Amino acid sequence: MKDYIKIHQADNVIVALKDLTAGTALSLEDGTVVTTLEDIPAGHKLAIRDIPEGGDVIKYGYRIGNAQAAVKTGAWVHVHNLKTALGDLLEYTYEPVQTPDAQGSIGCATFQGFERADGKVGVRNEIWVIPTVGCVNNVATALAKKANAYVHGNVEEVIAFPHPYGCSQMGDDQEHSRQILADLIRHPNAGGVLVLGLGCENSSIPVLMPYLGDYDKSRVRFLVCQEVEDEMAEGEKLLRELIDQAAELKRKEIPASKLIIGMKCGGSDGFSGITANPLVGRFSDLLTGMGGTTILTEVPEMFGAETILMNRCETKELFDQTVCLINDFKNYYKENHQTIYENPSPGNKKGGISTLEDKSLGCTQKSGSAPVKGVLAYGQIVETPGLNLLSAPGNDLVAATALAASGAQIVLFTTGRGTPFASPVPTVKISSNSRLAGYKKNWIDYNAGTLLEDAELSTEGQKLLNYVLTVASGQKVKSEIAGYHDMAIFKQGVTL
After folding, report:
1. CA gyration radius for the chain?
2. CB contact at 8 A, 261 and 410
3. CB neighbours of residue 454 within 10 Å
4. Which of 32, 122, 277, 465 has its CA 20 to 30 A from that of 430?
5. Residue in 414, 487, 471, 415 with CA at minimum distance from that of residue 137
């Protein structure tokens, strides 16, 4: 393995691929030799030429901030001498770039999925218990636990999704909770859904009905706990009906164009933008090239790299929507009197990420090179095949739930630090480095760290596509094997 990587020819920093001690001589591709002036941790940056105070630090071919003091060649470049160059609300100009739109031209792969009556396709055949309000969370959890004893046939599991919302909310905050619940009730990964209400909450079952629209009545049952004498007995009865019905459903061969895959990163390190995120970007290009759909979210981690996505928008209208996507999130911070650029996290910094630009330029690698085909509001279900952008925060659980609510059957989650969390849909953990993959085998599903060794991006991209197809066909990921299932709604307003 090499000692370092220079990501772009215009960069004035390189990234250490292993711990480098002071005095290490590094031979660059242009024949110059850079000697480290201090110890450089793996994943961190060092200057390959002098950078004056206030000068641009370039990585990925873009500015990731300005030097706070003069930086000597061979010096460690990190939070002690690098600061963000980002401002608040910005003016943007649409400067479209040529993108390799290969949608529908790469051929076709298939997977074994469950075709639903509405034409959507699920990659799981689970029974979900979805509470309308946190007051009945324990009932939902107890029902799911009891009903798993009745699972048979092609039903895989009964799962409850407790949450603390559905009441004491106002305005858009309440609307968003209702929309997310409705999206999950209609999700094709569920062969059956029991909607469990209390009866006096703001987001009661009658209130939710208009949000459900033309839902598949054969797959959904409703229970209002205050209206029955024994909610456990009634819930058990309804769940047994749903299990018996879903048990008869069978997987069938489905084209990969029916796949909708969410893309998210968390606990990033200095390798995330070099290995795991570009790998997911390659996967995205392959899937959209087959007519499939990918969704990129965590808007605050687009700040500093947003123009790359804006200029890949297929139309001026999509560009304008992306500008709103970015500036609306910045206004959300300002309205709550918070710093827009309160990022990266302590774990990111420890892993080698110094500024939000540094993080964002790595994060957006997951988008690949395809054009942006759609821009989605929080809770909006995806309709346009190809690469889509979704409004949601960077929080892992909230963003992954938002991806599922928008229709993703699987979420690809890249990480350099590791995490055990799950989401309502299979959540594939992709490590940015081999050390993490080996150390946390119970968390990590796929290792992108091989790209630091001898693996090729094109080959690994095809391998990841093949792996995702096996997950879509029923192979469980590590969090599913552990029995983890999480969901979180974006809390945006006051609590009454």
Report:
1. 24
2. yes
3. 7
4. 122
5. 487
- The C-alpha atoms of residue 150 and residue 164 are separated, in whole angstroms, by 28
pTM of the model: 0.95
CB atoms under 10 Å from CB of 95, counted, come to 9
Burial bucket for residue 3 (CB in 10 Å: 0-12, 13-18, 19+): middle
Question: Does 4-83 carry CATH code 3.40.50.10610?
Answer: no
Domain 126-250 architecture: 3-Layer(aba) Sandwich (3.40)
Please tell me the distance from the alpha carbon of residue 114 to that of residue 119, in angstroms, as a whole number: 10
| Token code pair at residue 69 | 């003091």
**CA 485 to the chain's CA centroid:** 15
Q: Using CA atoms, how far apart are residues 3 and 5, in angstroms rounded to an integer? A: 7
Q: In this structure, what token pair is assigned to residue 139?
A: 């009932």
Nearest to 378 by CA among 234, 175, 226, 233: 175
| Domain edges within the chain | 4-83, 126-250, 254-481
Q: For residues 460 and 94, give the distance between their C-alpha atoms in angstroms, rounded to a whole number.
A: 33
pLDDT in tens for each of the 496 residues of the chain? 789 999 999 999 999 999 999 999 999 988 999 999 999 999 999 999 999 999 999 999 999 999 999 999 999 999 999 999 887 778 899 999 987 766 656 678 999 999 999 999 999 999 999 999 999 999 999 999 999 999 999 999 999 999 999 999 999 999 999 999 999 999 999 999 999 999 999 999 999 999 999 999 999 999 999 999 999 999 999 999 999 999 999 999 999 999 999 999 998 999 999 999 999 999 999 999 999 999 999 999 999 999 999 999 999 999 999 999 999 999 998 888 887 776 788 888 998 999 989 999 999 999 999 999 999 999 999 999 999 999 999 999 999 999 999 999 999 999 999 999 999 999 999 999 999 999 999 999 999 999 998 899 999 999 999 999 999 999 999 999 999 999 999 998 888 8
Amino acid letter at 313? C
The span from the CA of 181 to the CA of 166, in Å, is 9
Measured in whole angstroms, the distance separating CA 142 from the mean position of its chain's CA atoms is 29
Tokens matching residue 39: 């110890």
